[in-house]
Design brief:
- The complex is a heterotrimer of chains A (291), B (421) and C (288).
- In chain A, 74% of the residues lie in helices and 0% in strands.
- Chain A is mostly helical and 291 residues long.
- The two termini of chain A are 31 Å apart.
- Chain B folds into two domains: 182 residues, D-Maltodextrin-Binding Protein, domain 2; 199 residues, Periplasmic binding protein-like II (D-Maltodextrin-Binding Protein, domain 2).
- In chain C, helix 3 packs parallel to helix 7 and helix 11 runs antiparallel to helix 12.
- The chains are: A mainly alpha (291), B alpha/beta (421), C mainly alpha (288).
- Chains A and C meet through helix 1, helix 2, helix 5, helix 6 and helix 7 of A and helix 1, helix 3, helix 4, helix 5 and helix 7 of C.
Chain lengths: 291, 421, 288
């Protein structure tokens, strides 16, 4: 990768020598191997027999099996239960966050600049905060108010934790809107809620979609709060279930089943990322620019 | 007319009575679940089946198969208990957790069900570590103690004092009869605390007085114990590698014939009699060494069943506990899986003795059992000791300094956690 | 009226982010352990005295800081390289960009399980590879001085895509004419990188640095599942130690103290970094 191609991105189109192209292809290939290699290895391991995992001398054809998946799907509770729990919590969180953040972002976008600056700084501070440090206080709240082992209750702290990011993205989106559209709507006598619902929401739809997918991914991935708020095995979200599976090793080499769990757990997320990748990318980049 | 009505009424009453009888007979059996590490659940599978057969219709026992790792299963249990939502009626508890769980109010005292008579049937060592604050909270299932393994082909008698051990081991190493003198667990982990406790006892020292929460680690005896252990390494009686040994490594060294003496748990005996063992047939068991006039110590490691306070099926759970700790159960667990029994009679039983000739030695060990300080803060206190001792072995510094620091840190810890002096 | 709209969301943030730190501050001056029935009892500064002399805490603090600094540095370098690659136009760029996002989307604990296998001794692919190259057993997950590097590797793998996207956004905001102007004045591509790209990219780099440093300091999921803090506590982080104090040792008062101390250390670290950067003049582009 020569520096010419590094800095003169758009200018090298059409002026590339074959050598440069294969050099770049090499880097791209390396990038893909780096990003996808470990997951691919999990995929391969998930179809490998327990014997083959510890013995690399076995013949190619005798290495493969579906047993790992069979074992995984026959556990108690069944593996798909964790996927369901995570989806439920993530959906509730996304809904709650959007419901609170959209009006809030509208309000914040309208604030006079002198307030906006410090408020934004506070929200950015919250967005940077390593939330694992909050777990003890949140656990105390769960104990005091009996919020533990409740997939609906856990959406509340999740919503709070994802709120800063949502506010940043949505406020930026509202600020980017030209005023005339809303003024026109006001002239037509639409109330605040009507304006939000019929005029503004459709306009910020891309930002809302980005926010929604990022919040959804956050809720799926969250670990410390789920670890302390959920203990019943049929209520665990995916990350906690995976950790429990990891900690419950009773065999010497259970990794075939572990790999199968990793693959099954990853599939929904991979699908989400591939389908919504544009929204994810724009959400993160906008967050960066405005942050 | 009246007669018909009477007959109809009678028939109805009869049907209702029959129905109630049938209903109560097919009344759902009480569900009792006990959480245990997987090694124990697997070893108890047959026992559970037998129990359910005998109590069919009344009690149904199921074992929840928990992680193998000691810490993991405690973490699992605690996460449920902290949320007030534990799905098990009883828990197989390690001896060092008991004070913590009891102090947290999660356990139901077992005094109503087990009395002095029951206690007297147990070997002395198994009676330790089951109480907290004057109540019985745990009924033991298996009990292990730390033992001194010695090579019968290299010495006539096992050493009984610290000086004798140093002399014998030193002599053997110097004459190159064996590569290492004495191997034990010196890594920074719980095993080191166990080894230390035995030596501490042998020098006449104490870890702490749990009635007054007073630490006693800077006493001359404790310092002497630490200095002796440190000296083993610096004088070459034990290899430096011992500072990273756990049970497995010391067993490996002894099994390969590279050591004259080893401190380990009873399970090592069976391992040493396997065909791949260099020292098969040349191993004896004894107690850890002690100063003249001091009583030798053997650290107790035991598992027992505790009843959860929030259980809805306490009577049924206690029945299950009794069954799983009964003499038959113990015999089966010993013969099939090698778990040390705790019923005193079993140590004289011919069938048991035939299966394991070292049973008498185990009994002696159990009769010299010492418990690690039964305080809810044991885990943190042990961490301080492990750290300081391992640091003493691996870096420069004197035992005096190390023990003084340990004492001070332990005291700060207790005070910070609210221990009233 | 508009402020009322924002009230619920802002209140939620204030409570969930603000309350814990206040609570910890209060709790750290109390004994709240299983000895006090998990009820707070005032004990003066005993927790703080204990913390000051707590070898384990300071060890963990050092390990956490080391992990965070090394991880974030590597992530930045790697992300910069990848962003420069993705910034060029070539066919399939969009698809590749999406695929490189996948590591970031997967839960850390799930991949930790995967890494346990990949680095497993003796059966994992890395060990098999080492053997086939004639090397001795690497023991990557059981050697105290090496295992922390494995955690760094796993962290870099997961979070680099995130930084890549931020830097990519930054690269895209640099107008092309700047480059053509630079070239016309006879600048080499390497100089362009140093004199045009990096200075304009600085705000994005600093943002990523700040964000990732704070997150990495709180590393928990990865170390709890991949190594459990081992071997011999060499990968234990402040967050994990705080968690153990609370959930395993049932000493909530000390757990709160550890977390508050961790937070204060992080703030100090960030302030120190900011001052350092300011003194070197790197923060000037931010004065806009």
């Amino acid at each position: 990768m020569t520096h010419e191609s590094l800095t003169h991105g758009p200018m090298t189109r059409g002026s590339m020598t074959p050598g440069l192209m294969t050099q770049r292809s090499l880097w791209i290939a390396l990038l893909l191997v780096w990003s996808l290699g470990p997951m691919f290895w999990q995929l391969v391991s998930s179809f490998t027999t327990a014997d083959a995992l510890v013995n690399d001398q076995l013949s190619f054809w005798s290495r493969w099996t579906l047993n790992n998946y069979r074992d995984l799907l026959s556990t108690d509770p069944p593996f798909w239960r964790y996927l369901f729990n995570s989806s439920l919590v993530a959906s509730l969180t996304t809904l709650l966050t959007l419901m609170l953040a959209i009006p809030a972002a509208y309000g914040m976008a309208k604030l006079p600049d002198r307030w906006k600056g410090s408020l934004r700084a506070a929200v950015v501070g919250a967005a940077l905060f390593p939330y694992v440090l909050l777990f003890l206080a949140l656990l105390e709240l769960a104990r005091t108010f009996a919020l533990g082992n409740n997939l609906i209750a856990i959406a509340i702290p999740y919503s709070a934790l994802s709120m800063p990011l949502a506010l940043l993205l949505l406020t930026a989106a509202f600020e980017a809107l030209p005023n005339d559209l809303e003024d026109a709507a006001k002239l037509e006598g639409l109330s605040l809620w009507q304006r939000l619902r019929w005029v503004l929401l459709p306009l910020i739809a891309p930002a809302s979609a980005s926010t929604a997918i990022l919040v959804f991914l956050f809720a799926w991935n969250e670990y410390p709060v789920a670890l302390t708020w959920l203990s019943r095995s049929d209520l665990l979200t995916l990350p906690v279930a995976m950790a429990r599976i990891a900690g419950s090793s009773t065999y010497s080499v259970p990794y075939g089943t572990y790999a199968a769990a990793t693959v099954l757990g990853a599939i929904p997320l991979l699908v989400l990322v591939l389908v919504f990748q544009r929204q994810i990318v724009s959400g993160l980049t906008n967050g960066a620019i405005k942050g | 007319m009246k007669l018909r009505r009477l007959l109809a009424g009678g028939a109805l009453a009869l049907v209702m009575a029959l129905g109630a009888l049938i209903g109560s007979a097919s009344f759902r059996a009480e569900e009792v679940s006990i959480l245990m590490p997987s090694s124990f659940t697997d070893a108890s599978a047959d026992l559970v089946k037998a129990f359910n057969r005998e109590h069919r219709g009344r009690i149904h026992l199921s074992l929840i198969r928990g992680p193998l790792n000691t810490e993991s299963i405690s973490d699992l249990a605690i996460s449920s208990l902290l949320l007030g939502d534990a799905p098990f009626d009883a828990l197989l508890m390690d001896v060092t957790w008991l004070p913590k769980y009891a102090a947290a109010g999660w356990l139901e005292p077992l005094d109503p069900w087990f009395d002095q008579g029951d206690q007297e049937q147990l070997v002395q060592g198994a009676r330790l570590g089951n109480d907290y604050d004057g109540h019985l909270y745990r009924w033991p299932l298996v009990a292990d103690v730390g033992l001194l393994y010695w090579r019968t082909d290299l010495m006539d008698q096992p050493p009984s004092t610290p000086d004798a051990l140093v002399e014998v081991a030193g002599r053997l190493v110097k004459s190159e009869a064996v590569a290492n003198g004495f191997v034990w667990q010196g890594r920074q982990y719980e095993g080191l605390s166990c080894d230390f406790l035995e030596v501490l006892q042998g020098f006449g020292g104490d870890w702490m007085d749990t009635t007054t929460n007073a630490m006693e680690l800077d006493s001359p005896e404790a310092t002497a114990a630490a200095a002796w252990l440190n000296g083993l390494i610096s004088e070459g009686v034990s290899p430096y590698a011992v500072t990273n040994y756990a049970e497995a490594e010391s067993l490996q060294a002894f099994k390969a014939g590279d050591a004259a003496l080893m401190r380990n748990w009873p399970y090592a005996w069976a391992e040493l009699q396997k065909d791949d063992s260099t020292v098969k047939g040349n191993v004896g068991i004894s107690l850890m060494v002690a100063q003249p006039g001091e009583r030798p110590g053997a650290t107790l490691g035991s598992w027992g069943l505790s009843l959860m306070r929030q259980s809805q099926h306490q009577e049924a759970a206690v029945e299950a506990i009794r069954y799983l700790t009964s003499e038959t159960a113990q015999r089966q667990r010993f013969l099939n899986n090698g778990y040390t029994p705790i019923q005193a009679d079993l140590f004289n039983d011919p069938e048991m003795l035939k299966a394991s000739p070292v049973l008498p030695d185990l009994l002696v060990g159990l009769n010299h059992a010492v418990v690690r300080p039964p305080t809810p803060l044991y885990a943190q206190l042990s961490d301080v000791v492990q750290r300081e001792l391992n640091g003493l072995f691996t870096a420069a510094g004197s035992a005096d300094e190390a023990m003084a620091t340990t004492q001070q840190r332990s005291q700060t810890l207790l005070r910070a956690a609210g221990a009233t002096p | 009226m508009t402020m009322l709209l924002a009230a619920p969301a802002l209140l939620l943030i204030a409570v969930v982010f603000g309350w814990p730190m206040l609570r910890y501050a209060w709790l750290s001056f109390h004994a709240d352990s299983v000895l006090t029935g998990l009820e707070p009892v005032a004990n003066g500064g005993a927790n703080w005295l204990r913390l000051a002399a707590d070898q384990r805490f300071w060890l963990d603090a050092g390990q956490t800081a080391r992990f965070a600094l090394i991880s974030v540095s590597l992530e930045l370098l790697l992300a910069l390289a990848i962003a420069l690659l993705l910034h060029q136009r070539w066919r399939g760029r969009g698809a590749v960009r999406a695929l490189t996002l996948l590591p970031w989307a997967l839960p850390t604990t799930m991949m930790a399980l995967g890494w346990r296998w990949i680095f497993n001794t003796p059966y994992g692919p890395i060990e098999v590879l080492a053997r086939s190259l004639g090397l001795n057993s690497l023991d990557l997950l059981s050697t105290p001085s090496i295992t922390w590097l494995v955690t760094v590797f796993a962290d870099v793998w997961k979070t680099t895509p995130f930084i890549t996207l931020i830097l990519l956004a930054g690269l895209q905001s640099i107008p092309d004419d700047l480059y053509s102007a630079f070239r016309l004045e006879g600048g080499t591509p390497l100089q362009a990188l140093r004199r045009v790209t990096l200075p304009l990219l600085l705000p994005y780099i600093l943002l990523s640095l700040l964000f990732r440093l704070a997150q990495a300091f709180g590393v928990f999921d990865l170390v709890q599942v991949l190594t459990g803090g081992g071997p011999a506590g060499s990968t234990e982080s402040i967050a994990l130690y705080a968690y153990l104090n609370g959930m395993r040792f049932l000493d909530f008062g000390y757990s709160a103290t550890v977390m508050l101390a961790g937070f204060l250390l992080l703030t100090a670290l960030i302030l120190a970094g900011t001052l350092l950067l300011k003194s070197v003049g790197l923060l000037r582009p931010l004065d806009r």
